[in-house]
Amino acid sequence: MATPKKIAAKILYGRRYDHVPQPQQVYLRPGERHIRRTLGALRDLRSRTMSLEDYRARVPLGEIEEFISCPLCGDSRQRPMYRPRDAKKGWEYQVVKCPSCGFLYRNPNIRPERLGDLYATGYSGFLSGAYARQRQRRYRVVMDAVGPAFADGDGRRLLDFGCGNGLFLQLAEQRGFSAYGVDLSPDSLAEARQRLTSAQVFHGSPTDVDEIAAGGFDVITMWSVLAHLPRPVADLSMLRSLLSDDGVLVILTVNGGSLHLAGLGSAWGGFTRNHLMFYSRDTLPRLLAAAGFEAAGLVPFYGDEVAAGESSLTPDEQRLLRRRVDSTDYGAMLVAVGFATDAAVDRWGGQVPDVRRLASPEQARR
Ligand SMILES: [Zn+2]
């Protein structure tokens, strides 16, 4: 459909960028990143800060929902920002921005004890062969970018938190890891058990399973899981306790600080039905600090095709894309590495481009 935005783009750019996949156009079309940043800043200016009491009075509360304060810094004040909805599928929710730390989260959020309601049935129904290949390509791209931690499993312990139907665990067992997974969806786990040979998967929390609760993990992964968690500090603290001192947590999640969100607002693709929290380059390291990690690294995400060497862009365009991703938002997805201690940075941090030391929760309070 010829929307006003599409007509404006046609007038500005002609057909010059038609061969560029839509998610990458924002980085290549001249000026577009500045326009999007400006749109995002204007939206920030228009939103008004209010007390949680005022906010409660004007926003409806669903049966499995609860109002919350900022999960990262505790500020209870609310700045309503977005209202994603899908009229056809019949869902809608509110997203607020914390006026203190800038964290974006759904409020009301889902009550943790009702989280299983979202995944009880039918969650794995959309898997196709092409989808599986694309997913596994993405896992490989991220593993290659993070580097040595994934290079050779060599019997080291790996836990995939929110393993779904086991597509990543299949790669992990092929690379020689002693691999485990947990998930909330019984349907997905049944599928995972058919796919896997040595990796073991369980329903529920890691602390419910003796083999996993024993800890000592070298690598823990969260592939598109973090945005679904209503108690991220508690969950990541638990995962930190399962890591060895030189262990790493690798996270892939939608980038709530991206130019895509700045341009699209409530229509942004990261606002899916079951997403609860939206991290950025600033707020994800805060979460890792609050969970007791000593350092965090961020890895720019250039898109699966570019990273896998399968892009239709010219070499010059790819160089420009990489430069602009590096200098703007780090990409549509956020890839982060949480290092349990400095020993983990020494052992696995060599290839991660942007590693920063984190203040402990005690230091941050001072
Ligand atoms: Zn906050």
List keywords for this structure.
3 domains; 19% strand; four-stranded antiparallel sheet; globular; 366 residues; Rossmann fold; eight-stranded mixed sheet; binds zinc ion; 39% helix; N-terminal domain of TfIIb; alpha/beta
Structure description:
By secondary structure, the chain is α/β, with parallel strands linked by helices. It has three domains: 4-42, no CATH class; 52-117, Single Sheet (N-terminal domain of TfIIb), CATH 2.20.25; 129-365, Rossmann fold (3-Layer(aba) Sandwich). It has 17 helices and 16 strands. Strands 10-9-8-11-12-15-14-16 form an eight-stranded mixed β-sheet, with helices on both faces. Helix content is 39%, strand content 19%. A hairpin with a 6-residue loop joins strand 5 (95-97) and strand 6 (104-106). The chain has helices at 4-13, 22-28, 32-46, 52-58, 116-119, 129-146, 148-151, 167-174, 186-195, 210-213, 232-242, 259-264, 283-290, 304-307, 315-327, 342-348, 361-365; strands spanning 65-66, 79-82, 85-86, 91-92, 95-97, 104-106, 109-110, 157-161, 178-183, 200-203, 217-223, 243-254, 277-278, 295-299, 333-339, 354-357. The protein binds zinc ion. Zinc ion binds next to loops. Residues 70, 72-73, 75, 98, 100-101, 103 line the site of zinc ion.
Describe how the helices and strands are arranged:
Layout: H1 4-13, H2 22-28, H3 32-46, H4 52-58, E1 65-66, E2 79-82, E3 85-86, E4 91-92, E5 95-97, E6 104-106, E7 109-110, H5 116-119, H6 129-146, H7 148-151, E8 157-161, H8 167-174, E9 178-183, H9 186-195, E10 200-203, H10 210-213, E11 217-223, H11 232-242, E12 243-254, H12 259-264, E13 277-278, H13 283-290, E14 295-299, H14 304-307, H15 315-327, E15 333-339, H16 342-348, E16 354-357, H17 361-365
Parallel strand pairs: 8-9, 8-11, 9-10, 11-12
Antiparallel strand pairs: 1-7, 2-5, 3-4, 5-6, 6-13, 12-15, 14-15, 14-16
Bound molecules: zinc ion.
